[in-house]
Amino acid sequence: MNTTIKKEIYQNLPDELVRLTASLEGREKDIVLLSSIGAISSILPNLRIEYRGDNYYANIFLMIIAPPASGKGKMNLALRLLKKIHEKILQDSGELRDICLSQSKKKDCPPVSLKILPGNISCAKVYKHLNDSNHGLIIFESEADSLSGMLSQDWGNFSDVLRKVFHHEKISISRSTDDLLFEVNSPCLSLVLSGTTNQLKPLIKSNENGLFSRFLYYHFNDKTYWKPASTQSENESLKGNFELLGDKLFALYGHLVSQNLEDLKLTTAQMSKIDSEIGNIHDKIVDSGLEYFTSSVKRHGIILSRIILILSVLRNIDEIMKGKEIEVVDIDVDNAIELIKLLISHALSVYDIFDNENNILTENEQLIFNELNFEFKRFEAIEIANKFKISERTTDYHLSRWVKNNIITKVSNGCYRKESRETARVANFAILARE
Questions:
Q1: CATH number, position 424
Q2: Domain of 394, in residue numbers
Q3: With 0-12 CB in 10 A as exposed, 13-18 as middle and 19+ as buried, what is 377?
Q4: How do 189-195 and 408-412 pair as beta strands?
Q5: Looking at the structure, do residues 226 and 303 belong to the same domain, yes or no?
Q6: Same-domain check for residues 264 and 182
Q7: What is the mean pLDDT of the chain?
Q8: Is the pLDDT of residue 427 over 70?
Q9: CATH number for position 172
């Protein structure tokens, strides 16, 4: 079973994203694409998309979960897309504040503003920066525990803030200790995080926490292999592509902040297709007894609409700069649907980390497990494993581990039966990833 992004998706991306990912392969290619989409979601002011009666800005919460030294550090390339915008906002607001302070009007001086917010920050500061920001913020951290530390502070329930900000709901805070009062209407915040499974749990706390269902997940636990170092020219070419797009996005951001609010609309046919695809996944989840996961499926529909908005903008940067209105084209809707269908299966995999980390199957295990009948014999598992060039000894190890962790039951010597809950989860993971 393939849990990487399909080649067809890459072939149909807007040209700007094709250039960013063309020289990469495998997981690194996927990580760069998703982190770039997450970064860009924070810099499209005054643009929204209508989805099921509500209007949403582009902001996305993304979490990349993988073992240490597995290539997820490539996500930091996406920061280059934000660099000039962040520096310009910081410089301009700092200059205005310095002028004000030099005139001794300290109480009335404007605050210093940011685009990129550090993860290691207090909850009160998050409110303040959201209040001070004109067009939203992003927290971009390659180590998720930078944010987890702030979430664990007794006096700041930042999880509640994130749940509301995902929907752009009003947030407010009032604290008498430091005479603090903020009300932020339509807050906009993007999150791009990466970490290990151990760093995930302190951040999300529980799969029943509403914060879980608001994230887009990309999860893998592959074996790591030594990778030859890239040449300097390859690295410079890759960085150069990000800086070129960063320059275009800097100009686009400057144009959009001066424009009136615009809402992109999906056609009736496009919305019907989305309803059909997401509804089909929703019904498969319910039929399999996995009702607990339906909130994630529904919110992936919202995220899907945001990805459509981002793809539409990237496909039409030149037209937007000329003041032309843009329309959502079918290719971007289809691409977003296929991407979300895969990432729902990733979210389903992450969900079970909270229940029993030992029950998560590796990709090799999933290859075997997904083709086994509900009741099967050892020789059948070995025959399936041989198709994927997995040895008999390794297959026996998998079988013993599955028995130990209640993934399967040993009925008699050489005969096994899948446990119903794990069967439903893995079967759905396979179906969703394959569709």
A1: 1.10.10.10
A2: 358-434
A3: middle
A4: unpaired
A5: yes
A6: yes
A7: 86
A8: no
A9: 3.40.50
- Encode pLDDT of 364-406 as tens digits: 787 888 889 889 999 999 999 998 888 888 898 889 878 877 7
- 1's tokens: 């079973």
Tens-digit pLDDT profile for residues 23-81: 999 999 999 999 999 999 999 999 999 999 999 999 999 999 988 777 788 999 999 99
CA atoms within 13 A on the CB side of 161: 26
93-130 confidence digits (pLDDT tens): 999 988 888 887 667 788 889 999 987 777 778 888 99
Could you tell me the pLDDT band of residue 136, with boundaries at 50, 70 and 90?
very high
Cross-sheet strand order for the sheet of 375-377: 375-377, 415-418, 408-412
Give the Å distances, CA to CA, from 9 to 63, 152, 203.
20, 38, 30
Domains: count for the chain: 2
pTM for this entry: 0.81
Question: Is residue 145 domain-shared with residue 55, that is, in the same domain?
Answer: yes
Structure-token pair, residue 11? 């072939």
Task: Pick the closest to residue 80 from 241, 255, 233 (CA basis).
Answer: 241
Q: Which residues pair with 103 in a beta bridge?
A: none
CB contact at 8 A, 80 and 243: yes
Q: CB of 40 within 8 A of CB of 58?
A: yes
SS (H, E, C) the chain: CCCCCCHHHHHCCCHHHHHHHCCCCHHHHHHHHHHHHHHHCCCCCCEEEEECCEEECCCCEEEEECCCCCCHHHHHHHHHHCHHHHHHHHHHHHHHHHHHHHCCCHHHCCCCCCCEECCCCCHHHHHHHHHHCCCCEEEEECCCHHHHHHHCCCCCCHHHHHHHHHCCCCEEEEECCCCEEEEECCCCEEEEEEECHHHHHHHHCCCCCCCHHHCEEEECCCCCCCCCCCCHHHHHHHHHHHHHHHHHHHHHHHHHCCCCCEEECCCHHHHHHHHHHHHHHHHHHHHCCCHHHHHHHHHHHHHHHHHHHHHHHHHCHHHHHCCCCCCCCHHHHHHHHHHHHHHHHHHHHHHCCCCCHHHCCCHHHHHHHCCCCCEEEHHHHHHHHHHCCCCHHHHHHHHHHHHHCCCEEEEECCEEEECHHHHHHHHHHHHHHHC
Chain position carrying tokens 């240490």: 68
C-alpha–C-alpha distance, residues 177 and 42, integer Å: 32
